[in-house]
């Protein structure tokens, strides 16, 4: 069977692909100076947003999102992290609705609602209701 992203069970991405996420988010700080880099980076991040997540990888992925939400210096990177989180939750709704993941996702979004950057707070407020509702509706 092939899922929505075109991956079959035998070709699903390895969880190590998520190790590329932090450096890609850090590149967002400088991507506005290079239009080609920005375009390529956005395309790659859009691909990350729709990757299938297994139930084994989901807790580690939320760990990574939690860690990145506090370690990323750039507001643009934290704002992008929110977009990725929302897409990840929606695309992998049944996996992300299991166990303590919904409450962890809620806490993460609520923490970003208190971010120092107004842009991040605005992004979090726009995604808070949708992301939290999706994470609890599985």
Helix coverage percent of residues? 55-70%
Estimate the strand proportion: under 5%
Indicate the overall shape: globular
Q: Radius of gyration, Cα only, in angstroms?
A: 15 Å
Number of helices: 7
Protein name: MMS19 nucleotide excision repair protein
Organism: Macrostomum lignano
GO molecular function, one term: proteasome binding
Summarize the structure.
The chain is mainly alpha-helical. It has helices spanning 21-31, 35-49, 58-71, 75-91, 93-96, 101-112, 118-136. The protein has one domain.
Overview of the molecule:
With 138 residues, this protein is mostly helical. It has helices at residues 21-31, 35-49, 58-71, 75-91, 93-96, 101-112, 118-136. Helix content is 67%, strand content 0%. The chain has one domain. The model has no long low-confidence stretch (mean pLDDT 81). It starts with 20 loop residues before the first helix and ends with a helix. One of its GO terms (biological process) is proteasomal ubiquitin-independent protein catabolic process. This is MMS19 nucleotide excision repair protein. InterPro entries: ARM-type_fold, PSME4. GO terms for molecular function: peptidase activator activity; proteasome binding.
């Amino acid at each position: 069977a092939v899922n929505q992203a075109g991956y079959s069970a035998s070709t699903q991405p390895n969880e190590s692909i998520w190790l590329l996420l932090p450096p890609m988010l850090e590149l967002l700080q400088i991507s506005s100076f290079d239009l080609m880099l920005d375009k390529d980076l956005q395309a790659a991040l859009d691909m990350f947003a729709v990757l299938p997540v297994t139930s084994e990888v989901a807790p580690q992925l939320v760990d990574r999102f939690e860690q990145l939400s506090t370690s990323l210096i750039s507001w643009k990177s934290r704002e992008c992290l929110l977009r990725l989180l929302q897409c990840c939750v929606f695309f992998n709704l049944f996996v992300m609705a299991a166990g303590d993941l919904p409450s962890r996702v809620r806490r993460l979004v609520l923490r970003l609602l208190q971010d120092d950057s107004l842009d991040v707070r605005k992004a979090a407020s726009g995604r808070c209701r949708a992301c939290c509702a999706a994470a609890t509706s599985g």
